TrEMBL record:
This is RNA methylase. Keywords: Methyltransferase, S-adenosyl-L-methionine, Transferase. GO terms for molecular function: methyltransferase activity. It holds the Pfam family Methyltrans_SAM. One of its GO terms (biological process) is methylation. InterPro entries: SAM-dep_methyl-trfase, SAM-dependent_MTases_sf. Signal peptide: none annotated. Residues 132-319 form the S-adenosylmethionine-dependent methyltransferase domain.
Length: 334
């Protein structure tokens, strides 16, 4: 599978050869079709990182993303009748099928097993190879780590949302909560924001965010980085701290030892957004996003704001899964 994985010994034979051969053919055919369909689109859009495949063939529940000339492949847990060793061999076979079909050297293909999100696992370290490349998007550069974490550091499904932020921050004060590696901050800086404040509990990700900013020439006192829980940060802000544009993109669930209580997006989003709105200027905007599929937005919880769902506009066309995230534009009106 991935380069840091040691296959079982003795080597387990490929399970159900006839079934696997059919699955391989269907998987390869779909990859070829998608690659052909997207052949010209990335170049026209100045995009070098995009989604090629997402469980298109139900029996092959993988996600295949291209990052420059590399492939990043993830598996979503699904029931199957293979033993653990057989499944390992099956996965490696499918990874090789993707590499061959898309003409990518196996050494540039990285595989991750994505399990259902539990606790702090959403940003869990899975290796320590530090295989990083410089990826480009929207005329900007980002450090992407293909080996060490479940996610790479650049969420491809928010490509359009990042552009929306860039288009409206000129001369404005920008806040990025749950900032992760700071991609929204990079876009805000590129959009000539007057100032940026980037907040994440992890020093690792804040350092990564600073590096992404440095890569693009954005340094200086107008860019602030805060290693703190987002809820704690926003509740402790002085009343005089005001922003014009904010991005709030929290995890579905988190139980970090550094916070007093677990974070559950459905339970905690109202308090978070209400507190954030207190620090948003009149006519200012919050972009709020979640990938929790069962999420229910209660617009009545924000009487001083206009809440407008923009999910259909923010999911990129390379994502067959139109429910990859949900996104709202919340404008303070009073």
């Amino acid at each position: 599978m991935s380069d840091f994985f040691t296959p079982p010994k003795p080597v387990t034979p490929l399970p159900s050869p006839e079934v696997t051969a059919r699955q391989s053919e269907e998987f390869a055919a779909r990859l070829r079709k998608r690659a052909k369909h997207l052949r010209r689109w990335p170049t026209k859009q100045d995009i070098t990182c995009y989604r090629l495949y997402e469980r298109d063939v139900p029996e092959v529940p993988l996600v295949v993303d291209r990052y420059e000339d590399h492939l990043h492949i993830g598996e979503f847990e699904r029931p199957h009748d293979r033993s653990d060793d057989e499944h390992t061999v099956w996965l490696e076979h499918m990874v090789k099928v993707a590499a061959k079909t898309l003409d990518v050297p196996r050494s540039k293909v990285f595989f991750k097993q994505r399990k259902r999100q539990r606790g702090t696992a959403q940003h869990e370290t899975v290796a320590s190879r530090h295989y990083q490349i410089e990826a480009k998007e929207g005329g900007l550069k980002f450090q992407v780590n293909l080996s060490d974490y479940i996610d790479t550091g650049l969420f491809l499904d928010h490509r359009i949302t990042r552009s929306m932020v860039r288009d409206e921050v000129a001369g404005k004060r920008f806040l990025n909560l749950f900032a992760y590696t700071g991609s929204f901050t990079v876009y805000a800086a590129d959009g000539a924001a007057a100032s940026t404040t980037t907040v994440d509990l992890s020093n690792t990700y804040l350092t990564w965010a600073k590096e992404n900013m440095r890569l693009n020439g954005f340094e200086g006192d107008s860019h602030e980085y805060v290693a703190e829980d987002a809820m704690t940060f926003i509740k402790n802000l002085p009343a005089t701290a005001v922003f014009d544009v904010a991005v709030v993109d929290p995890p579905t669930f988190s139980n970090s030892k550094r916070t007093q209580k677990d974070w559950v997006v459905q339970d905690d989003y109202k308090d978070l957004l209400q507190q954030t709105l207190k620090h948003i200027a009149r006519d200012g905007v919050i972009y709020f996003s979640t990938n929790f599929r069962q999420f229910q937005m209660d617009e009545s919880a924000f009487p001083g704001a206009k809440v407008h769902e923009i999910s259909r506009q923010t999911v990129p066309e390379d994502f067959r899964n139109r429910r990859i995230h949900r996104c709202w534009r919340i404008t303070r009106t009073s």
